[in-house]
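User: Can you model how 4'-deoxy-4'-aminopyridoxal-5'-phosphate sits in this protein?
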Amino acid sequence: MRKYNFCAGPAALPEPVLRQAQQELLDWRGLGCSVMEVSHRSPEFVEVAERAEQDLRDLLTVPDNYKVLFLQGGATGQFSAVPWNLLGADSKRADFIHSGQWAAKAIKEARRYGEVNVVASSEDRNFSYVPARGSWQQSEGAAYLHYTPNETIGGIEFDYVPEVDCPLVADMSSNILSSPIDVEKFGVIYAGAQKNIGPSGIAIALVREDLLDRAMGNIPRSLSWKVAADAGSMDNTPPTFAWYLSGLVFQWLKAQGGVEAMAEQAMKKSTLLYEFLDASDFYSSPVEKSSRSRMNAPFVLADDRLDKQFLSEAEKAGLLSLKGHRSVGGMRASLYNAVPYEAVEALVAFMADFEARRG
Ligand code: PMP
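Assistant: Here's the modeled complex, given as structure tokens:
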């Protein structure tokens, strides 16, 4: 029996995708072997790769002047790739919005290669809100501005796209494909796969073509977007199974009605949970209302001595991975695309029952 899985990542995958993979595992396309056991250069795999790219382009309406790259090294690899690829032309300076723990990691890595200016930060209130639009200014001559539209640990999500006159770089690891985006507003969008795309082991970058010639001269080959773009993301052996599964997720997303449908679902699911939290004295959300993430909802119990009990009873009730990030404690429910509305209904019902018994 599959349980409801609220893990922040690697996260729940759509059941039909897992079933299809299971069905095809031993004998893929009548080839007598699995998709993992064929050459990445075989016509069969190249078709999978191309279809995945096209489906992702369709889902996010990616303009033709953007490369879609399938990469390795996770989003963390892109923390390094971004400065390596963008600080080699005129400017060694990059602007960052500091919104929490993932932004902090991107900042720390970029500092190894250039001058980092933190132009906005929500550190003063423990990253519990999104720095307001218009409350900050970009610095002069920055090669790019980097931000994290959704902070997976802190549970805050931007409801606006920063307007800047340098390339905008976004780490969309935990909210990509959860709503329509205007790709043209961005120079680079990247994401690790293991939340809304597919299994871990693959990362995606959308890179505007004119940014491909700004790399530092000694860039490691495996981090170069230009090398990846020129080789169709196959400069070396790609993670073929993760690519194939991501492709199945894209097909599933299309069948569900695409990112518009996902946005509607995400709003419904997160509203159900947040309204419940706000109505309760037993549970609360540490995040300011207007900044709450639709994807990751951290919450705490008024009495943290009940945390352990809560988690063990939740697990027995078939609700998995509600423990908050090890750095912040408490609880966190991640509500990615593959988490159905019924899962949130079950969660809220369990929480109400727990409160009635322990409150
Ligand atoms: N950025 C964000 C917003 C994330 O949530 C994560 C992973 N949870 C990362 C970056 C790092 O991703 P990876 O583990 O793929 O390197």
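A couple of observations from the model: DSSP finds nine helices and 14 strands in the chain. The chain has a mean pLDDT of 97.
User: Helpful, thanks.
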